[in-house]
Each structure stands twice: as C-alpha cells, then as structure tokens.
Amino acid sequence: MTLYFIGLGLWDEKDISVKGLEVVRRCDYVYLDHYTSFLNCDIKDLERVYGKEIKLANRDLVEKKAEAIIERAKVSKVAFLVVGDPFAATTHIDLMLRARKEDVKIKIVHNASILSAIGFLGLELYKYGKVTSIPFENKNIKTPYEVYLNNKEKELHTLFLLDLDLENKKFMTVNDGVKFLIDCGLEKDTLCVGVGGVGSDEPEIKIGKAKEIIKRVFVKYPQCFIIPSNMHFMEEEVLGLWK
Amino acid sequence: MTLYFIGLGLWDEKDISVKGLEVVRRCDYVYLDHYTSFLNCDIKDLERVYGKEIKLANRDLVEKKAEAIIERAKVSKVAFLVVGDPFAATTHIDLMLRARKEDVKIKIVHNASILSAIGFLGLELYKYGKVTSIPFENKNIKTPYEVYLNNKEKELHTLFLLDLDLENKKFMTVNDGVKFLIDCGLEKDTLCVGVGGVGSDEPEIKIGKAKEIIKRVFVKYPQCFIIPSNMHFMEEEVLGLWK
User: Fold this and answer.
1) Span A82-96, pLDDT tens digits
2) Are A42 and A14 in contact (CB under 8 A)?
C-alpha cells in the first residue's frame, strides 16, 4: 500500500492542508514524529480534528524501528505526520529511503517549513547559509558558532534553530541560544533577530545587539534567531518594520 | 482591518491549509497573485472550494496599484492569495511593507514553497545556493548561467525555476531551460535533475546529463530543474532512488 509523509505546518492543528487532512482521515495508521518539533496544541486536538488515533513516534521508534512502520505500510495506508514540511530537514529521508527499497509506495503532502516561512522577515532566503541547531547539552560544543563564522565569511545569514525536549516539555529560548554563542566568542554587539511563534497569528520579532537580545522576553515557542550578514538596503528596510 | 497573506501551496485547490481556508471564507475581498505561479486547477475550482469570488491580480495591479488593495484593507478584511508560501520570494515583500507603513494589520498564513519542498529529492537544502529563474525572453541574457557558475564555485546546488506566461498559458519546460544553459556554455555532460509537478501525487523526476535531459519528456507543470554540486554519499544514494 502506501506510506504518506504529511507536513503539518508550523503552529497548530489547523495548519494541515485540506488535502493532508483528507489523506489522514483515509489512513489505517497514523504516526506523528514527536521529537524534531511540535505544534502549539495538544495531541488530543490533533486527534479530534483528524478523527484518528495518533501514535507518537519518538526518535528511537523512527530511527531504530522503522521496519515496523514499513511493514505496516506494505499492507495498509500509513500516515507519518511531520511538523513543518516532511523533508525540509533530512531526518526522515532515511525512512523514505528504506521504504522505497522495500517497494512501499511513497506519497508526500507538503506544508510550510520554518526554512521558507522565515522569508517573511524580509531577508532573502537564498542568502541564508547552512542552518544550525543549538543543543541543550552544549558544553565543549562549538559547531553552531563555527557554522555562523563560516556563513559570515561567505556573507550569508545564519538561522539558528533551538533544541527541545518534548518528553520533559523543555524548549530552548532565544536568550539561552544567544548566550551560548556569546560564551563561544560571539561579539556582544552583533545584530541578532529573535523570533518566537512563526506561523502564529502574531509572531514575536525582536531585533537588537546580542547583549540586548539576551534580556528581551519571548513567550511563544518554538523560538529561533537569525544573525544577518551584510544586508541589501531593501532587506534592511523590511527588517526595520519589526523594530 | 487586516491584509491576510495566504499561501496556497503547490498543486491544487486542496493545498490550502484548514486555517487558510477559514480565513479566506471570512474575508470581504479575495485577490489572487496571478503572475508569479499557478495551481493545477481552474480559478472556478478555487472559488468553489473557498466560497468566494476571486479577483485576479496581475503584476501591474500588485506592483502599481497596491494602493487600491491597501485602501480596501484599511476598512475590510482582504485576502491576498499566493501560490506556494507568500514570502518565499521577495515579490510580495513590497506590498507588505507599504501596507505596514499605512498601519494596515498584516497576518500571514504560511504554506509549502518549492524552496523547501524540493528537499524531498534528498539534496540538503542548506547546500542550495542562489535560486535563479530562466525567462522566456532570454536572448543576450546570461544571468541564470552566471548564478550557476557562481554557486558551482562555492560547491552549492542550483535550483532553476522556469518562466510562465499565465495570460497565454505558456510554461517553460525543463528541456527548454537546459537547452538555454547549453547555449550559454553549459558542459553537455553536466548532471541535471529535472522535476515536474512537485506537490502532485506523483512528481516526475528525471536524472541525467544535460544532453540527455533535453530529450526526456515531462508532462506536469510547473517544472524546474537542479544542477547538483558535489554530493555527500547520502545525497547521491537518495537521488539514486529517483532514477
């Protein structure tokens, strides 16, 4: 039969597409990637709107027990739900690869990803370099800072995604992320754009020097932030809108 | 009141999100960007699903007569519909900027963009360089080829979008696009990935040397193609899926 990868978009149970919703309702089994991101609603809200029981798939299930999902998809319709767009990150490419190797049919229902949604800030998307994530366990870790330095050298903007721990409902803040970079050596006067709740009715956007941003309050999650590289005047003008 | 920018996603009238649909149905006026891209359905299908009359906004209306849209948004709820994600390209940033300057409230409903959806091919999104579009009127134009050369030098993949003329229902093919690059000087043995109908149930994906791709048949639109730069073995493996 078929393994459907269905993007859920960025904010809540109503960000699924009309098509995605129709597909989920026709599926026999519904899994939700429950470790790379999250929506601002309860699993119960999803189950109510989708009219299906949802099995939460943690990293362990998806990475190590993909076989179970694939076996089911051989004989039934299986939906694998992913917050954002299913393949904006390569996390789930492996599941698709394995399923294809076992001749399971794949169908994809796309949705918004933070990687393109962030375009609303006005910084040109093609001028973003490599995206990096800041993990909670970050002692002796320098990778995000190195990615930033590398992008900066190429005059590219850097988008920083922030860690989350769904089991313990812990979400990293912009403040924590920028502090981490300062500890790595980030110049405190560096311009940062902190963002909370992209996809919500009113995303929070705060712009300032690193040393200021670490004190600003963001209340919506998930959060992320950008360190812009050299900006075109049009980019500067649009960014100015959010000040 | 409010100007809503609503993404329609990539394929047809059912790619709008449940939230987007609710918003459109509550709006007093509904405009559709009718020049940067299109869906594989009739405007009548959109009107039927959305339950609203849709005003087609061509480039002229949006760029030169934005004032009219903004004036309406001052006193009523106006939806501005955009195929894909509203701000994945900067085309509509100017309309947002103008509206904000006139104190019109802005709300955004995101959706899938080709820029993140293309991730399903398995090439890492952060390794894409600047995106470029190949225009119909391309005599003496070298920009897309130069963008490619520049990306190549930085070891970045290049995504080529292809021109369209909605009024005359003309859509550029992968064949035409790759031929144009060969005329600019592209080495005929360069690996190209042609794609038709991203967002459809079964996108067409064809991989081969430039000289082969210009002979392959693609029937779905819109089409686009990628010239990959150096690939990680995982990227090569996933790309191999589509052969």
Assistant:
1) 999 999 988 899 999
2) no
Side-chain-side CA neighbours of B60 within 13 Å: the count stands at: 1
* B136 shares its domain with B233: yes
**Which of B112, B141, B169 marks a domain boundary?**
B112
Mutation target among B109, B111, B156 for the A interface, most CBs of A within 10 A: B111
> Which amino acid type is present at position A33?
D
Q: Could you tell me if A8 and A105 lie in one domain? A: yes
Q: Which of A126, A131, A199 sits opposite B130 (nearest CB)?
A: A126
Of B85, B88, B93, the CB nearest to A122: B93
- Between CA A241 and CA A122 the distance in angstroms is 9
Per-residue pLDDT tens digits for A97-155: 999 999 999 999 999 999 999 999 999 998 999 899 999 998 899 999 999 999 999 89
Q: Locate the DSSP E strands across A62-197.
A: 77-82, 105-109, 132-134, 158-162, 164-165, 170-171, 191-196
CA-to-CA distance for A45 and A49, rounded, in angstroms?
6
Q: Which residues of B touch A200 (CB under 8 A)?
A: none
Both A213 and A233 in a single domain? yes
Q: Calculate ∠ Cα A16-B197-A37, nearest 5°.
A: 30
| Pair B125, B94 in one domain | no
B79 is in which domain, residue-wise?
2-112
Residue pointed to by tokens 């005059």: A155
CB contact burial B164-189 (16+ within 10 A = b; e otherwise): beeeeeebbbbbbbbbbbbebebeee
B237 contacts in chain A (CB < 8 Å): 97
ipTM of the complex: 0.95
Six-digit token string for B50: 């959305």
pLDDT at B213 over 90: yes
pTM: 0.95
- Residue ranges of A 18-37 with Cβ closer than 8 A to chain B: 18-19, 21-22
